[in-house]
Amino acid sequence: MLATTGRFFADKFRKVLPDSFIFAILLTFIAAIMAWGFVDAKPFGIVQAWYKGFWILLGFAMQMVLILVTGYAIAISPPAEKFLDWLATKIKSPIAVYGLVTLLGCTFSLISWGWIVLTAVLGRELARRVKKVDYRLLAACVYTSFLPWHGGLSGSIPLVLNTPNNFLIKTKVLSETIPTTITLLSPMNIIIALSLLIVLPALMMMMKPSDEHVVEYNDMVDEEHKAMKPLTVAEEAESLRLAEPNLSDTLNNSIIIMVIICLGGLWFLGHHFYTKGFDVNLNIMNFLFITIGMICHKTPFRYVVAMKRSCSNVSGIVLQFPFYAGIMGIMIHTGLGNAIALWIAGTASVATFPLISFLIGGFVNIFVPSGGGEWAVVGSTIVQAATTLGANMSPDQLTSFIARCSMAVGYGDSWTNMIQPFWTLAFFPIIAAGTKMQARDIMGYTFVSLIVSFFVFAICITWMPM
Asked: Taking all residues of the chain, what is their mean pLDDT, rounded to a whole number?
């Protein structure tokens, strides 16, 4: 039943969903029309707001490029290849691949959203080694495993709420921080995370297509890529040596140089985690990936070759991030985001507002697919509405209610990623490299994930204790 349902939606989405860049442009048009119609923004004012936002994600875009290329460089290293070869001897059936990739991906997402790169690496390599794995469903498993991220250690909203002097405190919307013990470690969040860890792998396994409908990795490899037998990283590095011994090749291929720089990196990382605990952010992750990658490739020049290969598939991020930042600019600088949140929350009650906050988060995420960016757009409105609705509560009850509604926005942000192809940019450079894979090939399956996960989120947000 679910296999048929997944295939049905996959076929429909494949026919109607345009390329993710076209999707970004269409959303820009919709945001502009809504700003003109809902908040009476002037046409040139909308264009100015669009341009003002256009460049605000450049730093984040560079972090994303680095996390992709450094993660991929690890994936093509000899130790990673050996591990994946070993794993493929243990995981021999397609249904086990779907379940394992989704389960590990959900676990990775709870640690850090950036670890979707590792999930993509695992999925790609298992699909290459295990027969009868449908590559489109496998890629959907990777994206589906992204669903729990906002309830994990890298969740933007709970981390902002726990940050001293955050923008809500500066604007006096909040009087003090809300600790992660009330958000990330709440019974509600833990139950949601555990539920998704059980439900999502089971769901993806149940969508396994019959053998006649399977499209394997080799079926999706483009002809040009299939015709080539690429050198390994080590072989390419060796092929670039000069014929006679020389100083430059000695330095390029020096293990000693790599050992010294890697020891410096490990020293810093050890000190960081020892003094700050499991404090994982994008900069630390990138530094960790660079250090591990250099260790795995052994010599400077091999790592240079690996990074060169890794950088060949990041065009989507470079092109699309400014356009989504422009949409964020329209939402923020015209007041559209705040107006949408106020309109949706207008008829709320204490009982219904957490679920309404979830729907607000899901809706705004379509236009601003960034947890931190979305919270900047609607955070003040959500907290102010929660404070007004909870005026008769005790201080502890009110803090708990604000935390519930804030986390609901985060879950909504994660939820509609399943129909918003923006975050495919975070793993498609790995999963789709050398293939004809497009975002529209997987969104039908992830639409089923969206429908099923709604019930998990809605039930827990409404009735689970904080």
From this structure: 83
